[in-house]
Specification:
single chain, 163 residues, mainly alpha, 80% helix, 6 helices
Length: 163
């Protein structure tokens, strides 16, 4: 388990890790394909854990907007589609790869920014720490289960996008 159990902090830590991986995927000196593999696993595990364990619980709080939570799920779909398009590019570092990477960066960054301002701030203000820690444990366990299952494989991402 991470240093914290607070679901808000765990989600924020993942967002910062995704930003680091974006930097690595953009860097010609780095292992861009390796960074993409790690990113794919993290994005899928993170989104699946949020949708399974966090979002349904947060919808129960009157000061957290259900529409924002549903919008977050829609944005996960957009991020998954952008990820699949990048994973399907054959040549890392090609013009197509760079273009698809920027589409992915834009989709995920937009979602993370919106989620942090609306859903996570709402959770921080309206959900007791004890409950946030319970949600954090559930989020982390589901996230780890997804990671162990190889959730970021192109086959699995395709299955998620097509469902």
């Amino acid at each position: 388990m991470a240093d914290t159990k607070d679901v808000v902090e765990l989600i924020l830590q993942d967002h910062r890790r995704m930003e680091d991986l974006f930097r690595r995927m953009r860097s010609v000196e780095d292992d861009r394909a390796g960074a993409l593999r790690e990113f794919a696993d993290l994005l899928i595990a993170h989104a699946q854990a949020e949708e399974a364990k966090v979002y349904p619980a947060l919808k129960r709080y009157k000061n957290i907007d259900d529409e924002e939570v549903e919008h977050g799920e829609h944005e996960h779909d957009e991020g998954n589609e952008a990820l699949l398009e990048l994973l399907e590019v054959e040549e890392v570092g090609s013009e197509e790869w760079d273009s698809k990477l920027e589409e992915l960066v834009q989709a995920v960054t937009h979602h993370a920014d919106e989620e942090e301002r609306t859903i996570l701030n709402g959770a921080r203000e309206n959900v007791a720490m004890e409950r946030r820690e319970e949600l954090g444990v559930a989020f982390w366990q589901e996230r780890e289960r997804q990671l162990k299952a190889g959730c970021g494989s192109v086959e699995n991402v395709r299955k998620i996008v097509e469902s």
